[in-house]
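Let us walk through a complete example step by step. Step one is to write down the protein sequence. Step two is to encode the small molecule, zinc ion, as a SMILES string so that its atoms and bonds are unambiguous. Step three, shown after the inputs, is the structure prediction itself.
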Amino acid sequence: MRRAEDRRTWTIPIVRGCKCSRGSFKSPQAAGAHLRSSEHLARQFKVSSRRLDEVLQAVLAASPVTTLQSHADAVVTAEAFLHEEAGVRDLWLAGVHPGLIPRLADHAQAVEEPLPVAYYLGLTYGNPDLSWLRATTRARPDPTVASWLAWVPHDSALVTDDTGEWLRLGLSQREVELATATNISPGAARELAYRSVRTPHAAARDLVGWAAADCRPTVEQMLLLDRHGLASSHPSSAAVDHLVDYARSCRGAPDRTELGVMLSIAGNRQAVQRFLDEGVRTAEMLAARQVTIDGAA
Ligand SMILES: [Zn+2]
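Step three: the predicted structure of the complex.
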């Protein structure tokens, strides 16, 4: 079984005519229960469900290894590795044996606290890159981060050393995902920190903030913003969209990032539009012109 595209429900290989062909399941426990049900197995193997039920009951009665209670020692050991009180049981119902849990936890060895059920499900059903998971959890040894990383598929763009570097720089999951989707590198954040009065953490957050507006300011542009006390401000994507539209009719229109920086310095769209009408094409020019206007006022 596996997690569905919507990331909330679960799917199993369906059997035609069975209720599983009508849609996904709300939890891995529900999906697992259906997979093991005589209703599903009878349809899968085209046998009478009544006869199959009799066989299954006989197997359960004869074989103690089919219940969680029969693995008491493994359960006690596994409980220490789980954050949730009923975690071992939830995993068992989702098809994860308690005997496996210490070995699964070992892939996030740097995390000292017990790990959530979601982490173990990710390792079992999410197909992560195990050596990357081990290295990246070391960058931020946190159970919640480990659960997120365990669900990152091995072929995701996040599976690089950059993810660990971003985590070391203190970015959140959402910020790391944005930095990766927009191709910013931790090296750019370090260079910005080095050349401006920023901590590496602040530099990383500022670059990601600008990336959210689909802008990639250079260090020079960031330094210009710094000189205007706008070190950590960035415009909204929608506001820059409007300016990009407006600038289309201007000869030699500035690019999107330049327009974003111009917007930050001018303070509002109308002011940037006036400057564009007057032939201003760079944030540097706008800043100089604004000083002259302010001085004259
Ligand atoms: Zn079914």
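Step four is interpretation. Residues 213-296 form one domain.
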